[in-house]
Design a protein that fits this description.
Strand order of the largest sheet: 3-2-1-4-5
Number of strands: 10
Helix content: 40-55%
Structural class: alpha/beta
Strand content: 15-25%
CATH superfamily of the largest domain: ATPase, nucleotide binding domain
CATH class of the largest domain: Alpha Beta
Radius of gyration: 20 Å
CATH topology of the largest domain: Nucleotidyltransferase, domain 5
Distance between the termini: 24 Å
Shape: globular
Length: 344
């Protein structure tokens, strides 16, 4: 049997990435050009700057991925790419690159949802087992997703306002910690204690999330401390916020496991790199001996093309195809891939 080679492109936010996957299992290359140092100066991702840097980097990462994999474009069987969601300008660069390669080399195109990529990144550790429950946590997303089979996504819990990563960035900003906020709060929280009282969040759907009120409570607490002339213990506030936010996530994982009885739980997204969240997930999942759980390796948490390659491989085998008329979709719905499978 001939080898099947997938070339994957990811450019949804501020990483320009390309990966080569062989036979759905062997990762031949995974090149990532990060823009983090540039955006740190602005305190967050600047969309126009991000898209311009993608234009500068896209050819380099594709050629580097092919070179490292010792693969020619003629050897590639399909090109998969992030169609959405994400920043429209950033997505446009990756989608256009994929379509150009597909047109020039006559290769099939396989559009992939960014969050599907994060979920399937767990397959670099172990195959997914169904039914599956996924926690997707990042700068733009906080969702609980149930999968009954490959590319069967049902969102059963989502955030009403801020995503967890967005809340981390905002709290880090008011604490004077800088950007990106997640790693900075996670590190500082280890030096503190959760001594500042913060409210527990209530949502109508017990699996939904809300972090805007928690962020506001931190800001109000800082105001009270200042008015009283007290000295803020930044490490204690970081710890207090992190515990409040992550225990909310832990409680919803617990509820979802009870409701859906999954065979497999996976974490996904940039915030899955948080050391305290990983600890809470292990503690909760180890209570369920009949359930497998997977926490992705650190390199798989942040945006990369290896995760798009994994998801793209499954989509390719299921017959999902794009065409040269497809464009980037910054509001792409994860559940829309059910329709993609039905129409394959």
């Amino acid at each position: 049997m001939n080898d099947e080679i997938i070339l994957a492109i990811e450019s949804s936010c501020d990483e320009t990435a390309c990966a080569i996957l062989k036979n759905g299992e062997e990762l031949l290359s995974n090149i990532v050009s990060s823009q983090i140092n540039v955006h740190t100066e602005f305190g967050g991702v600047v969309p126009e700057v991000a898209s311009r840097l993608h234009v500068e980097n896209i050819s380099y990462v594709i050629s580097s991925a092919l070179k490292e994999a010792n693969v020619r474009m003629e050897d590639v069987d399909a090109i998969t790419y992030t169609q959405g969601p994400g920043l429209i300008g950033s997505l446009h660069v990756g989608v256009l690159a994929a379509k150009t390669l597909g047109y020039v080399y006559h290769k099939p195109l396989v559009p992939v949802h960014h969050l599907a990529g994060h979920i399937y990144a767990n397959e670099y550790i172990a195959p997914l087992r169904f039914p599956l429950l996924a926690l997707v946590v990042s700068g733009g997303h906080t969702e609980l997703v149930v999968m009954e089979d490959d590319f069967r996504f049902e969102i059963v819990g989502t955030t009403h306002d801020d995503a967890i990563g967005e809340a981390y960035d905002k709290v880090a900003r008011v604490l004077g910690l800088g950007y990106p906020g997640g790693p900075k709060i996670d590190k500082l929280a280890k030096e503190g204690k959760p001594v500042y009282p913060l409210p527990k969040v209530h949502t109508e759907n017990p699996l939904d999330f809300s972090f805007s009120g928690l962020k506001s409570a931190v800001i109000q607490s800082l105001g009270r401390i200042e008015r009283k002339g007290e000295v803020l213990n930044t490490a204690d506030m970081a710890c207090s916020f992190q515990e409040a936010a992550l225990l909310e996530i832990r409680d919803r994982i617990r509820e979802a496991i009870e409701i859906y009885q999954p065979k497999h739980f996976v974490a996904a997204g940039g915030v899955a790199a948080n050391s305290r969240l990983r600890e809470l997930i292990r503690e909760e999942c180890e209570k369920h001996a009949e359930m497998t759980y997977t926490i992705p390796p650190m390199w798989c948490c942040t945006d990369n093309a290896a995760m798009i390659a994994k998801a793209g491989w499954h989509a390719y085998k299921l017959g999902v195809r794009g065409d040269l008329f497809d464009g980037p979709d910054p509001g792409l719905e994860l559940e829309s891939y059910d329709a993609g499978k039905e129409n394959a």
